[in-house]
Amino acid sequence: MRIWRIAGRYFEDPPPADWRQRLASRLGERPRRVGAWVELALYGALKCLDSAGETRLPDDALLSVSTLHGPDIALRAALAEAQSGLPLPIGFLTSQPGQVLPALARYLDWHGEGRCLSCRAPALALQLACVEAGPAGLLAGWVDEDGPGRSLWLRLLPEPGPAPTLVSGVFDALADPIVTHLASSSAQLHLARSTPETAHD
Questions:
Q1: Could you tell me which residues come within 8 angstroms of residue 110 by beta carbon, excluding any fewer than 6 positions away?
Q2: What domains can be seen in the chain, in order of their start residue?
Q3: CA neighbor of 156 nearest in space, from 174, 170, 172, 173
Q4: pLDDT in tens, 114-143
Q5: Cis status, amide bond into 14, omega within 30 of 0
Q6: pLDDT at 199
Q7: DSSP alpha helices (H): ranges in 84-147?
Q8: Is there a contact between 28 and 62 (Cβ–Cβ < 8 Å)?
């Protein structure tokens, strides 16, 4: 069973109301020709890399983006446009989930292997990514723009040291900062939590 250290995390759910303004300030511009769903992915991914102390995602790291609905709002808008004629080019572009990986590649300065999954169970998507990732680890995100939006991200690196004590856990527990490591087996997540002693090391 491979054990992963949580090097970075962004689990603010929902994101702040002004997240788009914060993203534009961070990048020095509003991302062009992408929709809100891709922007939300960019916001969370960059916050997660900040948490990990990284300025870019290494090329050998796996990038995995999971979603339940994808750019559903943009897709519905494009379909509405199509009822009265052809959808506008920008409306069609923003309705395409394939936009997310090129946008992340550009702003994370990353040129590696990645995928975008439609998935109802976030833990299963995470387990698959952990199986496929190599020594440079992975950046995994779960992004949906419905309602207030959701952009949850983990930066995971292999744990080279002694194995921590793991217990069965659930995906939502990964939001807790005291969860430091994870592993998976038999479709079950296993988590390690820091103790008061390790928290002060």
A1: 56, 57, 58, 59, 61, 63, 104
A2: 4-163 (3.40.47.10)
A3: 174
A4: 998 888 899 999 999 999 999 999 999 999
A5: yes
A6: 46
A7: 89-94, 100-108, 122-132
A8: no
